[in-house]
UniProtKB/TrEMBL annotation:
Name of the featured protein: glutaminase
Lyase recorded as keyword: yes
A Gene Ontology cellular-component term: glutaminase complex
EC number(s) from the headed UniProt entry: 3.5.1.2
Composition-biased stretches (Basic and acidic residues): 239-248
Taxon lineage: Eukaryota, Viridiplantae, Streptophyta, Embryophyta, Tracheophyta
């Protein structure tokens, strides 16, 4: 029985847990380092990244989270979770914030603007249809969302989207304190995978489309297959069951 941890410090962790229940998978809340033990994979949800970082520091979670990523077990970051997993983040508040790292990319913390500039759009994701069936598109819910400015050679781009016309200019301060433009392309990356890390700038947990969660669980199966193959053992599929009680949702589910 696969056990998926969901970092439950703040944000849309209840929605991820509900999405896992809908596909018959056990999800557990994670707030302390010891609760990472025994997990098959981990989801870092969307939320307010600065608040989440402060709470993670308070519970001394960063070393344990970095160790978990380093084990090769699947980790998925959505929105704020994407920021945490990036090796580099720009557009941060003064002083920045601590990152877990592991994903070879540069993310802009608030690329799409304020809460008022949140939006929904259809994203072309052929890989998702190839792996999990259904349409070549999925609904992307962007809430005060980040975006990926560039990626390393080992990072697979899964989805991008047009840059909204009302997006404010994004700038960072140079070493001399002069503001300079850092992005001027028509499209921006919003979903990537690198090895055991999956990251999306949008919120699949706020839609009724379960394919992203299924894709993430399949990453765990891939990890198991590779591990067993290295030991010259045959791999077997895992049964899953819903072992959690229903919990109220903090945010609406968009059809």
């Amino acid at each position: 029985m696969a056990v998926v941890g969901v970092l439950a410090l703040q944000g849309s962790y209840n929605e991820h847990l509900a999405a896992l229940r809908r596909i018959g998978v056990r999800g557990v809340e994670v707030r302390k380092p010891e609760q990472l033990q025994g997990l098959d994979s981990l989801i870092i949800p969307g939320g307010e990244s600065t608040t989440m970082a402060k709470l993670a520091n308070y519970h001394n979670l960063f070393p344990a989270l970095q160790e978990f990523v380093g084990t090769g077990r699947p980790v998925w970051g959505t929105c704020a979770g994407l920021i945490f997993l990036a090796n580099k983040a720009v557009g941060q508040k003064s002083g920045g914030q601590e990152l877990i790292g592991g994903l070879d990319c540069t993310v802009h913390r608030n690329f799409f603007g304020s809460q008022l500039q949140s939006f929904e759009t259809e994203l072309s994701v052929p890989m998702l249809a190839e792996k999990e069936g259904g349409s070549d598109t999925c609904r992307g819910v962007f809430i005060r969302a980040p975006a990926i400015l560039d990626v390393g050679s080992d990072v697979e781009v899964l989805a991008d989207c047009p840059v909204p016309s009302d997006r404010p200019s994004i700038t960072i301060a140079s070493g001399e304190g002069v503001e300079e433009e850092v992005y001027s392309k028509d499209r921006v990356i919003v979903a990537v995978r690198q090895g055991n890390i999956l990251a999306t700038a949008f919120h699949p947990e706020l839609t009724s489309d379960s394919r992203w969660h299924r894709f993430f669980l399949d990453m765990d199966k891939e990890s198991d297959t590779k591990a067993f193959s290295a030991l010259s053992l045959s791999s077997s599929s895992r049964d899953s069951q819903d072992g959690s009680k229903n919990k109220p949702l903090d945010l609406p589910i968009f059809e």
